[in-house]
Amino acid sequence: MARRTGSSAEVTGPRIRAAALRLFARHGYAAVSMRQIATEVGLQAGALYLYTPDKQTLLFELLRGHMEDLLAAYGTPDGPPEARLRQFVRFHIAYNLDHADEVFLSYMELRNLEPANFAVIESLRRRYEDQLSQILRDGAGLGAFQIADVRLATMAIIAMLNGVNTWYRQSGRLSREEVLALHETMAKSMIGAR
Amino acid sequence: MARRTGSSAEVTGPRIRAAALRLFARHGYAAVSMRQIATEVGLQAGALYLYTPDKQTLLFELLRGHMEDLLAAYGTPDGPPEARLRQFVRFHIAYNLDHADEVFLSYMELRNLEPANFAVIESLRRRYEDQLSQILRDGAGLGAFQIADVRLATMAIIAMLNGVNTWYRQSGRLSREEVLALHETMAKSMIGAR
DNA sequence: GTCTATACGTGGATAGAC
DNA sequence: GTCTATCCACGTATAGAC
Question: Helix, strand or coil for residue A110?
Answer without folding.
Answer: helix
